[in-house]
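Reopening this ticket.

The earlier resolution said the output was attached, but the attachment link was broken on my side. Pasting everything inline this time so it's all in one place.
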Amino acid sequence: MKNDFGKGKIWKVILAQAVPLLAAQLVHLLYNVVDRIYIGHLPEIGSMALTGIGLAFPITTLVAAFTNLFATGGAPLFAIARGEENEEKAERVLSQVTGMLVITSVVLLIISLIWKKQILYLFGASDASYVYANDYLKVYIWGTTAAMLSTGLNGFINASGYPRTGMMTIFIGAAINLVLDPVFIYLLHMGVAGAAIATVISQVVSCIWAVSFFLGKNAPYRIKKEFMVPSGGLLKEIIPLGTAGFVMQGTNSLVSIICNVTLRTFGGDLYVGVMTVINSVREILSLPASCITQGAQPVLSFNYGAKKYSRIKEGIRFISLTGLVYTIFAWILVLLIPQALMGIFTNDAEMIAAGTDSLKLYFFAFAFMAGQSAGQATFTALRCSKRAIFFSLFRKVIVVVPLTLLLPRIGFGVNGVYLAEPVSNVVGGIACYAAMILTVYKRLPEDGEVAHI
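Inline output:
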């Protein structure tokens, strides 16, 4: 079988998936982050415009959540079917996910068009910041379908064993965005709206590339119209597994809303802008660890379908160790150069001064995130959907949200918002990883036997 994840050193197989993914995601991150860099350095309006973009985060995160609901639910099933050599089921899963991504994206677009203003004020906009948030969002939402398809189908490209092709999905869109951003923002003087236009164009091109991969003559698996119609049987398999990814992104959206509203109450628009910068730094520093776990998921799923459990254990050990080493490094980096990291996104001295200590506080105990990432990746890859969902909810809804609301009101002020994150890293990371070891790792049987996890 081509692209057999069941052969060779598993750490090499994981890296073969993860390295192209990392390269692609780095470029993808650039084209997400570069908008904020350009906008944050606009003369006079940069800080307020950055705050406006930050207010749109919960909506863009919610789009990612619905993408995950179907894509991260379907990709492990797709990889398991490949491991079982069940080609028809693999194509059914691929086509079903494609259909659901299209349907869901249209619904989200309609909702955003009708209630955009109410949503932005609910998410913490002031009269001053709403202008910039609206300028960005009223353009960005038109790329919803393209964004969901390009991101969602890219996971299937990687799970098919073509990580370099998956890398190009992101490279192409990122390159276009990097070129168009300064043109629309500065040359054509379109500001925040220009950043959104550049992003939408890049998403459309990435979408065309990803869809074409599964429609071409030499496609290893094809999107078929007859399999795109919603099927209750398949959705009962896809949605429970994808709910973990949905909850993870959905709770990120919830936390962003609560953080923005709380920060506006206790610190004003300035601190909403600071959180936009902190979220951007987190995206950058979280990326390598995230790519290792994302690269591992189809490999673990494939070997689960092939009943090669010793390889799964080896893979879990590998992603756990690499994740821990990297997150310790990232934590130290934040402690050493917080001002430089803030300065990437803004030249506003007041915002840099306000954000430096906040950044260090937010990243305290960052290394514990390695446990959360390894645990969640394993649960999702091996179809342990209930545990994956629970620990997504546990860290964000049970720990972060109450602390974000409580700590500022008992004397911590804005620092309470930033302090909630490290507490959740410690509690959530330890709990998730311990549960994965006890309920999955230790229960995997000898190769070839039937697993009961």
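Reporter confirms the inline version is readable. The chain has one domain: 10-443. The chain has a mean pLDDT of 86.
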